[in-house]
Amino acid sequence: MPFKAEYIWIDGTEPTAKLRSKTKIVEDGADLPIWGFDGSSTNQAPGDKSDCVLKPVFVCPDPIRGGDNKLVLCEVLLIDGRPHPTNTRAECAEVAAKFADQEPIFGIEQEYTFFQDGRPLGFPLGGGFPAPQGGYYCGVGADEVFGRDIVEKHMDLCLEAGLHLSGINAEVMPGQWEFQIGPVAAPQVADELWVARWLLYRIAEDFNVSATLDPKPVKGDWNGAGAHTNFSTKAMRENYDAIITAAESLGKDGKVAEHIAGYGADIQHRLTGMHETAPWSEYSYGVSDRAASVRIPWQVEKDGKGYIEDRRPNANCDPYVVTRLLVNTICSALA
Ligand code: ADP
Ligand code: MN
Ligand code: MN
Ligand code: MN
Questions:
Q1: Residues with Cβ < 8 Å from 246, sequence gap 6 or more?
Q2: Ligand 1, atom 12: nearest CA belongs to which residue?
Q3: pTM score, two decimals?
Q4: Is the CB of 285 under 6 A from ligand 1?
Q5: Domains, the chain, ranges and CATH?
Q6: Nearest ligand, CA of residue 137?
Q7: Residue 196 to residue 213: CA distance in whole angstroms
Q8: What would the pLDDT profile of 253-281 be if each residue is shown by its tens digit?
């Protein structure tokens, strides 16, 4: 029996790339071949030189179709085999390989918001706003929680696909949720996050709901959506000096601007200094501090080892870029 391989890739939409996919029927026992697509329809090529190449980089069972069917995350190459300019994975993999001896790993908290009929799920049908935020975070009950059936289904799909999903929770605004992937090394953690995002969009489709990674889906007194990125190296998992060196390294000259520029479009509108964020232009770190750029969890201070949480990345960030920046900055400082 041939099987269905869903080839998934990241397009060239600016400022925030989107996921695309199409299906290839593959003969039983055959390798997953290199494939191609029309780059002129994805902001990746002009019409007269439209061919782009899809190279499989991460394969897992397809939990939507089941059976022997597969999800095949690809990187995009030019026809000469070099990485396409929109391919951020290649550089991430290069930097991760360079510092692999330090054993860096990541846990990424992906926040997102369900929308239906142009408003967040749980916002009143006739327009206007629900009760102010406060009761929704990790809430329970039909007046507090919206979309749990989709979230439960998504969690099952991620586990069936073999992704390193480590948890889910309802967030601060109605219709807003989070899942976590990790701890896993780069670039795999980012591969898994992109596949988990695809599964989220795909399953929400069946409920006639859309999931968005918009970092500030509702203006005003509502939390934005982030992708807090938890990071450690072998040294950080063994001693507190390495934790402090890591936290300090992110505040060094030029590093604040470099990281903010790679942490997702429209980040200035989310990192305002309000709603559990630190202002984007000022770097700070602190123990247990959810108003700092980087938080050292209390348990890490107590144990004298562990990991740090960079709270700045936006929900709409490219995890290949975020993980590449963190490995490069922190592992260079610890080398
Ligand atoms: P928060 O309290 O900020 O909501 P979460 O529980 O949502 O934290 O997410 C914490 C993430 O950190 C999880 O994905 C977890 O796997 C990850 N994590 C735990 N230990 C480490 C570590 N040593 N290095 C990197 N990530 C880690
Ligand atoms: Mn969390
Ligand atoms: Mn959260
Ligand atoms: Mn967090």
A1: 231, 233, 236, 308, 330, 333, 334
A2: 107
A3: 0.98
A4: no
A5: 3-86 (3.10.20.70), 95-334 (3.30.590.10)
A6: 3
A7: 13
A8: 899 999 999 999 999 999 999 999 999 99
